[in-house]
């Protein structure tokens, strides 16, 4: 959180790969297909079971239990 403006600053927290399909049920969520590689931008909602990420040009929440976090991969060129 940027204390001077009171806003949450999104950051690059690495990537996760979808291990299950997920169909978004709200407009602030993203759908996942098994094998999708999601850029993680926030883990603040993890206690509720959700992370925020970017996929196919859309940013939204997805269930963190449906993905496996990649270790050590922080750029878009890693597989």
Automatic annotation (TrEMBL):
Q: Which GO terms describe its biological process?
A: actin cortical patch localization; endocytosis; plasma membrane tubulation
The protein's superkingdom reads Eukaryota
Subcellular location, record wording:
Cytoplasm
Spell out the GO cellular component terms annotated for this protein, sorted alphabetically and separated by semicolons: actin cytoskeleton; cytoplasm
Single GO MF annotation: lipid binding
Annotated SH3 domain residues: 11-72
Quote the protein name from its UniProt record. Guanine nucleotide exchange factor VAV2
* Lineage, highest ranks first: Eukaryota, Metazoa, Spiralia, Lophotrochozoa, Brachiopoda
């Amino acid at each position: 959180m940027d204390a001077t403006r009171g806003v949450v600053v999104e950051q690059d927290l690495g990537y996760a790969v979808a291990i299950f399909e997920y169909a978004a049920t709200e407009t602030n969520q993203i759908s996942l297909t098994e094998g999708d590689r999601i850029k993680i931008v926030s883990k603040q909602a993890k206690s509720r079971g959700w992370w925020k990420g970017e996929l196919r040009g859309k940013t939204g929440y997805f269930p963190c239990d449906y993905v496996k976090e990649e270790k050590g991969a922080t750029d878009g060129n890693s597989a």
